[in-house]
Amino acid sequence: MIEISAYYFGAIALIMIGLYAVLVKKNLLKMLVGLSIMETGVNLLLISIGYINGKSAPILSEGVGPKGAVDPIPQALVLTAIVIGVATTAMALSAAIILYEKYGTLNIEEIRRLRG
Amino acid sequence: MVSILKRSLAIITILIIGYWLAVAMSHIPFGQDKMLVGQYYLNHVKDQTGAVNAVTAIVVNYRGFDTLGEVTVLFIASTGVGALLWKRKRERTARVPGSVVLTTGTRFLFPFIVLFGAYIFIHGHLTPGGGFPGGATIATGFLLLYMAFTVYEIPHKGFEVTEGLVGMSYVAVGLIGLLIGSYFLYDWIWQTWHVGTVGKLFSGGFIPIIYILIGLKVGTELSGIIDNMLKEGVSGND
Amino acid sequence: MNGQYASLLIAIPLISAFFVPVIKAASKKAVMPFLVLVTAVQTAAAAWVFNEVYTTGKPIIVMAGKWQPPIGIDLYIGHFAALFVFIVAAVSFLLSIYNFKTIKIEPIDKYAMLFLLLMLGATGMIATGDIFNLFVFMEITSITAYALTAYNKTGEAAEASMKYMILGGIGSSFFLIGIAIIYGSLGTLNMAQIAQLAGSMNATAAQAGLALLIFGLAVEAELFPLNAWAPDAYQAAPHPVTVMFSAFVVKAGLYAAARLLYLMQAVGSWHSVLKLVVIMATLTVIVAEFSALRQRNVKRMIAYSSISQVGFIALALALGTQAGVDAGVFHMVNHAIVKALLFIAVGYVAVELGGDEVENFRGLGRRMPITAFSITIGSLAVIGIPMFNVFWSKLRIILATVDVGYTWAAALVLIASVVEAVYYLRLLHVMWFERSGERITESAALGAIMLLLVAVVIVIGVYPDYVWNLAQKAGADIFNVAQYIKNVPLMGVGA
Amino acid sequence: MNCISCIDYIIIGIMVLSAVFAVEWRDLLAAVVGMAAVSLFASLLFFFLQAPDVAMTEAAIGAALSGAVFIFAIKRTRRFETEEEEKPGWWVRW
Q1: Which of A64, C69, C338, D36 has the fewest CB atoms within 10 Å around its CB?
Q2: How far apart are CA C198 and CA B37, in angstroms?
Q3: A1 within domain boundaries
Q4: Using CB atoms and an 8 Å cut-off, which of residues 1-30 of chain D contact chain B?
């Protein structure tokens, strides 16, 4: 059996739950909720990769030297990734609104059927 | 019957992916020092950028190019939402006015929220935070205004032009770096003059300037997205 | 001039896109001419960079913020990037003229911004030398593409865009997981340093990381399981956007995938990933060709054909030999030109005759002779008739495939090509041998653009050597990773 | 042990649980609240993992604003998921 840390486990669990929602659910907003959860999972994965036992946040003010801080790069990356995620979500939701205005439903099977 | 079959198929696929990920991740030990480039940043952040917060220094200075792209992504989202939800004539459709608590509370709180947002992005190089949460805080202030008053609307023209101008100033700061230091996005303030002392508000080279720009941009863009999502087309027009 | 000025390739479209709201506040009429101006400037800048790189033979390394890689982000404008940045800019320039005729739906100012940013995203994806920066540019490209796909605001467009968004969302999450695994193992994000250290990576982790990166890019690169969005999006998007998709957005994704693939060639499990991509590519070709056969909508049919050609390129790039990569790059160039021609012509027909169903093309040879002539040349070229440019690259791809020993893949791909000939000839038959409607006066500017592209197709077809030389240099740029590492002035951090 | 203060195990558990609820709840408004809860717990975990910048951004943008945007979208569409799913996702077919 493989052994991974609880944080990795939580992150991978979020990714899998999100992926499940995207693959199985039929409601568009539900799929987008899934995508959003997946993104959170990925962010958690990145941050936990950067963590180092017993070190503190990479803000080098009082008492924290260069040797006493965790890896700052994943944090910078995740900062970017969060903003990108929100941008994608907003775009997707406005497309969903158009779809609802045109077809009166958010169920993808229904939309497919109405489109013919 | 079929549905259960398909669903279990999906679950099996996902479990395989999950196991595969877990196997891959088990080769990356948790909580151990794996830094290579990261250590360099930590060692040199103070004298090379003048910022105390290493994350901010990376986001704005070392990997400033990413941040420029990130700002662009948000700009695209705001533009795209505007393009998709565009109608010739639109107005707000909220019918229920906010309660007394909400309206007075909003009137009282709004300036403080905006001030707090500004505080967050101005102190980005010293404390956690920075342009993105600061801008989001400001947008929350506008969100409150929208919820409290049924007829409130942001000044669109002004916001759009601000968005554009602020974005241009960001690129312009980069281009000034290209002219002065002959590198795009070169930190011409800190690297040429070393203004201010590390750890004080007046330091960090162009980080505060850029974070102010980012804060303004994020604030206006997110408010624009909120505005677009809340307004519906008036029936009869398309 | 200083090589650092190549960063203008990113700065020009960006600052212009931010400038559009200001222009709109002044005068709405000025937006479209502004687009022409900006793309012209961008083309000039790209031409300068192209000239610089090919005369000196050395890549330009743009270091953002004077930070040496791997500390900072570098743009690596080598032979490949210089060639393709130029193609991106030139095609955009042609399209900015095409926009006048085809874009009628409001809000035009937002369209202009998105147009510029799509060009920026593709340029950045091709030029960057850092995997996270690649992710950022990939998101710029794909989010712009989502918005532009849905721009017509019809139900079909919104659905296509939604499909694209969901697949793209999965893809970008996978890509980010791939970055996480690679960063966690190596502690760096710079491509050159990753290539340098790749050998020390655990084989399982490297396989997972690389496969996830390729899967993430496969959405942009339209490889088989993740390309279901493409036909819908191509059909529903505004015509200039379709041209951009097939001419360079796909190419940017393919290039990024190929670059990452070859960077990681030092890892132990490399060949298994390569084989995976070969299978995906072959499936892409076959599925797309057979789907194209039963389309009644011409734009959609050409979209499927475009996807299958992309499969060809991916196959060539995944062979793992110098010859394959060269042939793939050659095919990329040819495909960009031919598909730009076809989509421009088909879009023009759709605008003039009110639709892109096969019925609208009946008797086109008499109604719009220049357009019909362009479509004919384009179709013959895509089928792979000798004396047109695609023939040479297809030939080289098949030779390279057989050379490596994937005879089965070559055979399948050849069968698919026959299928392709069937449906293109069917279209030509409808165009020339059926009659209906009267003659329409064609726009001179668009006629000139199409004839220019036709001329390029024929010239490359008759004298392929010049472009083949360029493609060989560009291919070497991708394939020769040792040279890539040497070209990037890595700072000795840790390694 | 790998846990930092051992409260994190509990938070990871709650986070995964709210993710499951967010995916399974029929009421989309509740689902969005579940999603925001996932973001909030994740931001708490970011704080444990010594990433205060990320924690702030995730709380402000990931939880609050994206939740708000979702709620506006629900307001303009409909609140409940409709019928049971039967076929695989529609991108599987061409």
Answers
A1: A64
A2: 15
A3: no
A4: 2
Banded model confidence at residue C61, pLDDT cuts 50, 70, 90: confident
Assigned domain for A14 exists: yes
Percentages helix, strand, coil for chain B (3-state, rounded to 5) are 70, 5, 30
Residues 6 or more apart whose CB falls under 8 angstroms from that of C494 comprise B36, B37, B39, B40, C187, C188
Residue in chain C lying closest to A32 (CA): C166
Nearest CA in chain B to C111: B83
Is C143 in Cβ contact with A91 (below 8 Å)? yes
Domain count, chain A: 1
pLDDT of residue B238: 40
Paired tokens of C10: 């990113």
CA distance C194 to C134: 14
pLDDT band at B207 (very low <50, low <70, confident <90, very high): confident
Residue A82 lies in a domain: yes
Backbone torsions φ then ψ of C131, nearest 5 degrees:
-70, -35
Q: Please, are residues A46 and A77 in contact by the beta-carbon 8 Å criterion?
A: yes
Residues C199-224 have a mean pLDDT of: 86
Whether the per-residue pLDDT at C174 is higher than 70: the answer is yes
DSSP sequence for C376-396: HHHHHHHHT-TTSHHHHHHHH
Q: For residue C89, what pLDDT band results from cuts at 50, 70 and 90?
A: very high
Q: ∠ CA(C138), CA(C143), CA(C147), 5° rounding?
A: 150
Q: Which chains contact C through at least 3 pairs of Cβ atoms less than 8 Å apart?
A: A, B, D
What would the pLDDT profile of B181-204 be if each residue is shown by its tens digit?
A: 778 877 777 777 776 777 677 777
Q: Nearest 5°: phi and psi at C490?
A: -70, 140
User: For chain A, which ranges sit under pLDDT 70?
Assistant: 1-2, 116
Q: What is the pLDDT of residue A1?
A: 54
What is the distance in angstroms between the Cα of B214 and the nearest Cα belonging to chain A? Answer: 12
Q: How far lies B101's CA from each of B104, B107, C7, C229, C232, in Å?
A: 6, 10, 53, 48, 49
Summarize pLDDT for B130-183 with one digit per residue, the tens.
888 888 888 888 888 888 887 777 787 888 888 888 888 888 888 888 888 778
Say whether pLDDT at C375 is over 50.
yes
Q: What CATH number does the domain containing A107 carry?
A: 1.10.287.3510
Summarised one tens digit per residue, pLDDT across range C283-315 is 888 888 888 888 888 888 899 999 988 988 999
- Write the residue in C113, C136, C188 that is nearest to B70 by C-beta: C136
| Angstroms from A87 CA to nearest CA on chain B | 5
D76 touches chain C (CB under 8 A): no
Facing A56 at nearest CB: one of D45, D50, D66: D50
Instruction: Write down the pLDDT at residue C44.
Output: 93
Closest Cβ–Cβ partner in C166, C167, C228 for D94: C228
Best of C28, C63, C66 to disrupt the B interface (most B CBs within 10 Å) is: C66
Query: Residue type at A55?
Result: K
pLDDT of residue C269: 79
Tokens of D15: 């986070």
Are the beta carbons of C183 and A102 separated by less than 8 Å? no
Fill in the amino acid letter for C41. V
Q: Does A45 contact B73 at a Cβ distance shorter than 8 Å?
A: no
What's the whole-number average pLDDT of chain C? 87
Exposed / middle / buried, residue B4 (Cβ in 10 Å: 0-12, 13-18, 19+) = exposed
Cα–Cα distance, C335 to B189 (Å, whole number): 47
pTM for this entry = 0.93
- Helical segments of C131-269, H only: 131-149, 155-186, 191-197, 203-221, 229-236, 239-244, 250-263
Residue of A nearest to C176 (CA): A42
ipTM of the complex: 0.91
DSSP assignment of C443-490 equals PHHHHHHHHHHHHHHHHHHH-THHHHHHHHHHHHHHH-HHHHHHHS--
